[in-house]
Amino acid sequence: MDFLRPTTWEEALAAKADQPEAVPIQGGTDVMVELNFDVRRPVALLDLNRVAELREWGMAGAYCRVGAAVPYAAVIEELAGPLPGLAQASRTVGSPQIRNRGSVGGNLGAASPAGDSHPPLLAAGAVVEVESRDRGVRMIPADEFYLGVKRSALEPDELIRAVHVPPATGAQYFSKVGTRNAMVIAVCSFALALHPGERRVGTGIGSAAPTPRRALEAEDLLARELDWAAPLDPALLSRFGELCARAAAPIDDVRGTAAYRVHAIGVMARRTLTWAWNDHLGKRAA
Ligand SMILES: Cc1cc2nc3c(=O)[nH]c(=O)nc-3n(C[C@H](O)[C@H](O)[C@H](O)COP(=O)(O)OP(=O)(O)OC[C@H]3O[C@@H](n4cnc5c(N)ncnc54)[C@H](O)[C@@H]3O)c2cc1C
Questions:
Q1: Which of 109, 140, 214, 225 is 20 to 30 A from 155, alpha carbon to alpha carbon?
Q2: Distance from the CA of 106 to the center of ligand 1, in angstroms?
Q3: Residue nearest to atom 15 of ligand 1 (CA)
Q4: Tens digit of pLDDT for each residue in 13-55?
Q5: What backbone phi and psi angles, to 5 degrees, belong to 244?
Q6: How far apart are CA 77 and CA 75, in angstroms?
Q7: Measured between alpha carbons, how far is 94 from 181 in angstroms, rounded to an integer?
Q8: Is the whole-model pTM more than 0.85?
Q9: How far is the CA of 273 from the centre of ligand 1 (A)?
Q10: Coil vs helix vs strand at 204
């Protein structure tokens, strides 16, 4: 097996263009498990750990640009202010060791329907920056990035460079059901983001469909009927939960049944909207 170790982004893109079958490795918390269990035998590994710029974050226009290699620990410590939904989700990932090594870019690269960063990225309206040597940069909205189970819009010669996330302008919440509180793959998860300026509520469903996805009909309902100055109407809350549950398309597997997941998505949708709405009204009153 070849082991490619670029030190710059340009070298990394060149290596991927010349050897598209090379498997990128960042924190290795997915890749090494697959190698150890012989799930994959790549002809080459493309180690991105020497490409320092991938570990950077900062504002880029109206977005917070998070380099693909930024680990969950940094999201939690440094980005909880602008990106509270992503930070909440990051706190639930694995253990401290996994949060030190594992990255948001790696979560996107794996594109697992159960990945915890996906729902908050969808709810916030994030955009994934990918690049190839020969075709340049593509900016892919998160809700166009996930194509199937562990399949994304990334082409074989492309690498993920960063994810651009609009800083929060309203409350954001992430909720995850697992068989215990830590070191657990989500049975299912849900993220919600208020966008008060646009009078819009963003959603993200995890581990309850072949891909992470938004609950579009539920978002439309709130865009039409939510009164941003009033307490939450219980009937509207209930319909929101039903539409979120209806947007899920889960399977039965070892972690949970499809029926349980549909139920839990409805519960988490109602809970996260209630939490967010309490914050929203609290802020208005303050
Ligand atoms: C014990 C344990 C617990 C875990 N718990 C959780 C959890 O609670 N929630 C959760 O979501 N995940 C969990 N994971 C999975 C894993 O930690 C995450 O998916 C993590 O985000 C992967 O990041 P990484 O940097 O380690 O990626 P890597 O393993 O290095 O790569 C993951 C995938 O992304 C690709 N990739 C990496 N970087 C790039 C790039 N720049 N461009 C293109 N492709 C790229 C790789 O080729 C690979 O396919 C757990 C894993 C372990 C081992």
A1: 214
A2: 4
A3: 30
A4: 999 999 999 999 999 999 999 999 999 999 999 999 999 999 9
A5: -65, -45
A6: 6
A7: 10
A8: yes
A9: 29
A10: strand
